[in-house]
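Sample A.
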Amino acid sequence: MEETKEKKKKGRPVKYVYLDKYERQQSKTDERIDAVVQLMTIKLEEHKKRTYLIVAILCATIILCNALI
């Protein structure tokens, strides 16, 4: 009987093991979300630059066409 009490005392309670597992999974998920947000921010900046370039080319084309008329 005493051996079982000693065995139960050893180790961590199950709820703490599950909490640790949950916290590890949550931190991994948070890291992945941060990585995706950084990637999307970079993509958005590239898209903005590309859009500005296209608009500038269109404006220059319109100005040149009006100058030729």
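Sample B, a different protein:
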Amino acid sequence: MREVLGIQKVIEWSPSGDLVTEPKQEDVIPLIIAETLDSHGMALVQNMMKAIHVSNFKIINGSIPFEGESLNFKQGIIFGERALKASMLTESPFEELCSQWSTFNGKSFIVTHELKKMLVSEFPGDIKMYKKQVWQDLKNFKSNGEL
């Protein structure tokens, strides 16, 4: 049976580019908040999660009004419309898309560093050279109980 990964270590990517490591979250189901996604965008998110073997997750469509403060943003992975659509339209390397992410309801995007690297290893762009190191880093990261 495939292990379902919980997001236990999150890194906040602030608008200034600084990284802020947050405390571990135990037994978290990844929550993906995607801005105004159409069916193609939703499919892309689902494929990304499938590629990294995360089968238990929730997607909230950002076009549905909700009070941002009512959600625990430390328990999720937030993808921006710009990043997803740019990926679909241009097949840009994922690490470049990360730098294009804006904010969602005034919050900084949150993504695990290792998850970002895993996505980089799985999707189009000049990134194949990273793949071997990415999976070795992931193995080390998991063995330390951090993911």
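Observation for Sample B: The beta strands are 11-13, 19-21, 31-34, 58-61, 76-79, 110-111.
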